Amino acid sequence: MDTRSLGRTGMHVTPLCLGAMMFGAWGEPDHDASVAIIHRALDAGINFIDTADVYSQGESEVIVGKALADGRRDDVILATKFHAAMDVPMGQKGDPNKRGNSRRWIVREVESSLRRLQTDWIDLYQVHRPEWDTDIEETLSALTDLQRAGKIRAFGCSTFPAHEIVESQWVSERRGLGRFVSEQPPYSILARGVEVDVLPVAETYGMGVLPWSPLAGGWLTGRWRKGQDAPDSSRAARMPARYDLSDPGNQAKLEAADALAVLAEESGLTLIDMALAFTLAHPAVTSPIIGPRTMDQLTTQLGAVDVTLGKDILDRIDEIVPPGTTLAAGDRGFVAPQVTDPTLRRRPSGLA
After folding, report:
1. Above 90 in pLDDT, residue 88?
2. Key word Oxidoreductase present in the record (predicted)?
3. In terms of pTM, does the model score above 0.90?
4. Sign of the torsion formed by the C-alpha atoms of 57, 110, 35 and 43
């Protein structure tokens, strides 16, 4: 595969990044099968792997470490993430000091990731989600120290709103700290909200962009069609709100996914190739993250790097899902606590 520059880091990565979220208890529990998928991706030319400490409570990192322990580590740009609690399911609360974006947690958790990954360094260490009650300078200074110590080569953010990306860049410049070199946003044909501000901001600051869920969590595989039963999905079982068809946003996704499948068929493409090629076509995008659970799923996604969408197809896609539109609220990836916590947007009783 050809490679693209990862922001301005000087590192070069393939236009598809292998996501490891589905390796382990959340997807494929057989370690040997998962390792075989990783090796197949590397043999196909992919040189970029992304995981996270929270995926299957660290099991994903363990599997990736096993896959690279046979002498392949030096050939791979290895990325992982920190933020969520390891000892509780995502979305639930645990020890508040065993999670988040504080220096206390970062310097502890990086050691755990290094151990699980069986490596001495991480190429790209990413903040998995923003945290409103932690000063961004606290996070950036800890990451800068890890970079200077050689434990990480670069660091980035994931699912940050545009204004927080801008703030982080300003703080880095003012305080003489390292800066976020990449952003990992939710981006697919069905979730285009980041086209409004996140992608332009990333371009402004020369950041690499690594879209997660470019197949919209399976909605853009061709299996979701009108008039058919909903397919079995491990992701749907884990995140039912993103697949519940009683939700108007998910119903709109079904309508769009069906129309997109028809467009792909008319264009002589698979919907998977068309969806991945769509994300690759945006000038801000570096490497969409594919997340196969099986060898067959990996095989169906590798060919997208050879697909270029013409203006006519891109215009038709814009008609089905207008630019800047995210059809379902659950696909935004992050909702500010000021929206979900009423106490953050209401004055205490008795105050004018």
Report:
1. no
2. yes
3. yes
4. positive
